[in-house]
From TrEMBL:
Keyword DNA-binding: yes
One Pfam family, short name: Peripla_BP_3
Keyword DNA-binding: yes
Protein name (database record): Unannotated protein
GO molecular function: DNA-binding transcription factor activity; transcription cis-regulatory region binding
PANTHER family to which the protein is assigned, alphabetical: HTH-TYPE TRANSCRIPTIONAL REGULATOR GALS, LACI-RELATED TRANSCRIPTIONAL REPRESSOR
Family annotation (InterPro entries): HTH_LacI, LacI/GalR-like_sensor, Lambda_DNA-bd_dom_sf, Peripla_BP_I
Length: 346
């Protein structure tokens, strides 16, 4: 019968950071910097590859508990959103979680329901539950974000929004997305177009509005911009009911979020307006949901997954001493044409 000592000696030993360093022929401190994605790690691509190859060969896994004790970090990133059910925010979550998994961080999700915003923010940051915070909000005013968050905490990155006086954000090319929608809607003899946008004090809404109005003027369309306090389905429905109750309705509508677009389609159904025969609709943001609406909804796809991933990279860099930056994802918006805007002409 095998003794306990024999079993212990037969058990495979877990690879250590020194084992990786020995195979890669580098100092253990450099291995630590590379596996922890430290931006201060000074290594050539060849050296970095040797280290990562050694990590894979040995099956090395960093000891997260020891790292937390040494660095006083939780290896957690907070992500605050206003609405988990919104397809755009779901895409951001996907990008953030995938990137965090790749670099060894966990994600703590939180919402900022009305009346609980300040408590959610301050609890996460001041209790030490997270090392840094990503905020994706199209509703909270700049003044709240600056006074309660950005002016008091260094490791915070805004997603899909810029706040006056703040230096860390990752956005997409919203203006180009709006321009692409108007360009598409300008076909089929369109003469009048209406855009539906979020709150005027949020820069995301203003960037989309700017792109919409610029493109409408470029294509010679008579245009109207409607601003509402939020971005949801009910907002789109209410605007739709009011707009479609008038004697003269526009030839086309651009909804600056897919949720508004869904709400607008509902209003058209309630008002017995045929889409696309009577009016054509395009919404910003894509989602599989768009395929299952009646009619299916033409959308502009924005690189929101990549935006989430790049926001993580920026935040981790800042937590490791890097400088804050206002970044724009380079990927361009794309158009997916569906029934709500496709008017086939014989």
């Amino acid at each position: 019968m095998a003794r306990n000592s024999d079993l212990a000696s037969a058990k495979p030993q877990r690879a250590t950071i020194r084992d990786v360093a020995r195979i890669a022929k580098v100092d253990p401190s450099l291995v630590s910097r590379i596996v922890n994605n430290d931006p201060k790690a000074s290594a050539t691509l060849a050296t970095r590859k040797r280290v990562l190859d050694a990590v894979e060969e040995l099956g090395y896994r960093a000891n997260s508990a020891a790292r937390m004790l040494k660095t006083a970090r939780t290896q957690m990133i907070g992500l605050l959103l206003p609405d988990f059910s919104n397809p755009m925010y779901s895409a951001i979550i996907s990008g953030v979680e995938k990137r965090c998994t790749e670099i060894g961080y966990g994600v703590l999700l939180g919402d900022h329901a009305e009346g609980h915003s300040e408590k959610t923010f301050t609890d996460l940051l001041e209790s030490g539950q997270v090392d840094g915070l990503l905020i994706a909000s199209g509703t909270l005013p700049d003044s709240f974000l600056k006074n309660n968050i950005l002016n008091h905490h260094a490791s915070v990155v805004m997603i899909n929004r810029r706040v006056r006086g703040a230096d860390a954000s990752v956005i997409v090319k919203d203006e180009l997305g709006a321009e692409l929608a108007v360009q598409h809607l300008s076909q089929y003899g369109t003469k009048t177009i209406t855009g539906i946008f979020g709150h005027r004090n949020v820069d995301t809404a203003q960037r989309r509005k700017k792109g919409f109005e610029s493109a409408a003027e470029k294509f010679g369309l008579k245009h109207q911009s409607i601003e509402v306090a939020s971005w949801g389905m009910e907002d789109g429905r209410k605007v739709g009911v009011e707009l479609l109750s008038k004697k003269v309705i526009p030839d086309a509508v651009f909804a600056s979020t897919i949720m508004m677009g869904i709400g607008f389609l509902r209003a058209a159904h309630e008002m017995s307006i045929k889409i696309p025969e009577d009016l054509r609709v395009v919404a910003l943001h894509d989602s599989p949901i768009a395929n299952y609406l009646t009619p299916s909804l033409t959308t502009i796809n924005l690189p929101t997954i990549e935006m989430g991933a790049q926001a993580v990279d920026l935040l981790v860099s800042m937590m490791n001493g890097g400088s804050p930056r206002n970044m724009v994802v380079s990927d361009l918006p794309t158009l997916t044409i569906r029934e709500s805007s496709r008017l086939d002409i014989d």
